[in-house]
Specification:
The complex is a heterodimer of chains A (156) and B (282). With 156 residues, chain A is an alpha+beta fold. Helix content of chain A is 33%, strand content 16%. Classes of the chains: A alpha+beta (156), B alpha+beta (282). At the A-B interface, strand 4 and helix 3 of A face helix 2 and helix 6 of B. The structure holds flavin-adenine dinucleotide and FE2/S2 (inorganic) cluster (FES) (2 copies).
């Protein structure tokens, strides 16, 4: 039985009738056409699909679209303001925080959420925060640099 | 990986949720944070016909001090617990355990109730629930019933919650700072290969030890507890007693660790958890 959902995605209200088994990541990619959120493992381990639901970082492959009914969702497409990159996006740009870019949207969303909880983290705290986001390319150092850069930027 | 088809209901109250469970019987499954159930449904290990989402029942998510005890609603997330000032002061084992579960995203969604009902042999909460002698309040068609932690974890992936019932809340004692959680982690998932929670009661000269990850269900390390009962918590005594941490249990063996290695880890993590707790003695 299809179920109606209303989800505000990056400020735009999306209304749809979905099968309850539709994963939130599929809703974003296939119903909303927002392909910035990636599917890596589809098992909850890699973090590529991380988005914010009501401000909390979650793995959208391990959540049903119907669970997000009535919620505010932010994806990587919703971070920039008037063409200006979010400080975390800028950090990844400045510090070469990506190579192939597959993990990047998830890394960025987790980092955005984490910096809201902890505005001046240590490098170890950043590592702990990114535990659920895997990267096969960079070796992580530049990603940590990028988040550190964003934290410093956020304070100035 | 997509779950099999199912119908979805999202009750607003506990009564309504129990009504759905009564109506659909064994065809229904409760959905809390979904971080064990949805993976199982994707693998088609679980194929409920009706999913009853209890995620919006407001009065299942709270952390309070009531009548000299801590009460935690079943829908309270791991992060709620990790970040609770009340718990950091009054039951510090819980935030310490929560911080070691999975990752930020998992802790934002996963709940203490879901985790305990799921009774994953590698889950972290059962160790803490046993060490703290938690009491679970389960509610069902015939009203509420309390279940002690020692009776709650029945077997691998089986808790005392019966079909048609919902875990409502967990009651825990207020404790001093003298607690510790030591975990040997399966790096890819974050689950425990061996996780040990220790609670030291200095006044009574007693310790309680909960062990998870090692056997089909979490257990109290009774041999360690009796060896240390009434004795001085010296490094030497802790070291000797910890050797009994896997006595009488049948350790699991899988790709992550052999039974022998798990038994060894149980002893090492028990020593570490106790040393951590003792290091916090005033
Ligand atoms: C990538 C990843 C890493 C993880 N790492 C860890 C880890 O390191 N340590 C750890 O302990 N866990 C870990 N988990 C599991 C996580 O903690 C789950 O959130 C938890 O085990 C289940 O809680 P839930 O709220 O998600 O429950 P759900 O998945 O919604 O439910 C689990 C089961 O309990 C039942 N249920 C749930 N709530 C109730 C209730 N109130 N009353 C009756 N029945 C109920 C459901 O019907 C279902 O059978 C991990 C999960 C993932 C995806
Ligand atoms: S795709 Fe969701 S965690 Fe990997
Ligand atoms: S940049 Fe390629 S996976 Fe991270």
């Amino acid at each position: 039985m299809k179920t109606p959902v209303k989800i505000r995605v990056n400020g735009t209200l999306r209304e749809s009738e979905v099968e309850p088994r539709l994963l939130l990541v599929q809703f974003l990619r296939e119903v909303c056409g927002l392909t910035g959120t990636h599917i890596g493992c589809e098992t909850g381990v890699c973090g590529a699909c991380t988005i914010l639901v009501d401000g909390q970082a979650v793995k959208s492959c391990t959540m049903l679209a119907v669970q997000a009914d009535g919620s505010e969702v932010t994806t990587v497409e919703g971070l920039s303001r008037n063409g200006k990159l979010h400080p975390v996006q800028e950090g990844f740009w400045e510090c070469h925080g990506l190579q192939c870019g597959y993990c990047t949207p998830g890394m960025i969303m987790t980092a955005v959420h984490f910096l809201e909880r902890n505005a001046s983290p240590s490098r170890d705290e950043i590592r702990h925060a990114l535990y659920g986001n895997l990267c096969r390319c960079t070796g992580y150092s530049h990603i940590i640099d990028a988040v550190e850069h964003a934290a410093k930027k956020g304070k100035t | 990986m997509i779950p099999a088809m199912f119908d979805y209901v999202r009750p607003a109250t506990l009564e309504e949720a129990l009504g759905h469970l009564a109506k659909y019987g064994e065809d229904a499954k409760v959905l809390a944070g979904g971080h064990s159930l949805i993976p199982a449904m994707k693998l088609r290990l679980s194929q409920p016909k009706v999913v009853v989402d209890i995620g919006r029942i407001g009065d299942l998510r709270f952390i309070e001090e009531r009548d000299g005890k801590i009460a935690i609603g079943a829908m309270t997330t791991h992060y709620d617990i990790e970040s609770s000032d009340l718990l950091k002061r009054s039951c510090p084992l819980l935030p310490e355990v929560a911080d070691k579960i999975g990752d930020i995203q998992v802790r934002n969604k996963g709940t203490i109730g879901g985790s305990c009902v799921h009774a994953d042999p590698a889950g972290d909460w059962p160790a803490a629930m046993l060490a703290l002698d938690a009491e679970f309040e389960i509610t069902g068609p015939r009203g509420s019933r309390p279940v002690a932690a020692k009776d709650f974890f029945v077997d691998m992936l089986t808790s005392a919650v019966e079909p048609g019932e919902i875990l409502k809340l967990i009651r825990l004692p207020l404790t001093a700072k003298t607690v510790g959680y030591a975990k040997f982690t399966q790096k890819a998932s974050g689950f425990a290969i061996a996780g040990v929670a220790a609670v030291v009661d200095k006044a009574r000269k007693s310790v309680t030890i909960g062990v998870t990850g090692v056997a089909a269900k979490a257990y109290r390390a009774a041999g360690v507890e009796s060896a240390l009962s009434g004795s001085e918590l010296s490094t030497a005594n802790i070291g000797t007693a910890s050797q009994k941490a896997a006595d009488g249990v049948d350790p699991l063996s899988d790709i992550h660790a052999s039974a022998e290695f798990r038994a060894h880890l149980a002893c090492v993590q028990t020593r570490r958890a106790l040393e951590l707790a003792v290091s916090r003695l005033p």
